[in-house]
């Protein structure tokens, strides 16, 4: 569900990307748990494409479905952490990239985790989903800087491969419960993709 609110200089889109009603794998969930603060990164190369990572096969709320195992870097915000700093930290932890310039950011988007019957991770136990602010960054390095396989900062690797992709195609490559957020991000940053 999307709501549009008047902003100070433009309309802001808030995306409540709850699991879609037409996808039986992710029925609608209602909970009193809060959303986990999170940042997402749309890292653009000189050709206007964004960096996406191929997720390791796994389980939990972010279970990978065949063919829907790509996403842009994203991750949690530490308590008291500046959001831009969190975006740069997450980008480095997941991809090794430090050569990036700030281009812009979105308002907050949210999505809910789908129902999951397996072991309850800290995320599932405490949070209903994620509240994300997305940052657009321009990659200023060379492709050999990108290394998603080496664990950094005590965090395990999340991706086993990476590639550059057209921003407007990424929503079709992610798990269904994230699609509406990815579509909103593509609309917000469309002017950077050309």
Describe the model.
The chain is α+β, with helices and mostly antiparallel strands and 194 residues long. It has a single domain (2-192), classed as Nucleoside Triphosphate Pyrophosphohydrolase, CATH 3.90.79.10. 14% of the residues lie in helices and 33% in strands. The protein is built from three helices and nine strands, in the order ββββββαβαββα. It has a six-stranded mixed beta sheet. The chain has a three-stranded antiparallel beta sheet with strand order 5-4-9, with no helix packed on it. It is globular. Residues 1-28 have low confidence and may be disordered.
The profile of the biggest β sheet is: 6 strands, mixed
CATH class: Alpha Beta
| Rg over C-alpha atoms, rounded to the nearest angstrom | 16 Å
Name the CATH architecture. Answer: Alpha-Beta Complex
The name of the CATH topology is: Nucleoside Triphosphate Pyrophosphohydrolase
> Order of strands side by side in the largest beta sheet?
1-2-7-8-3-6
Terminus-to-terminus distance: 28 Å
Shape: globular
What do the pLDDT scores average to? Answer: 82
Outline the low-pLDDT stretches.
1-28
Order of helices and strands: EEEEEEHEHEEH
Name the structural class: alpha+beta
User: How many extended strands?
Assistant: 9
CATH superfamily: Nucleoside Triphosphate Pyrophosphohydrolase
Please tell me the total number of domains: 1
The total count of helices amounts to 3
- DSSP strand content: 25-35%
Helix content estimate: 10-25%
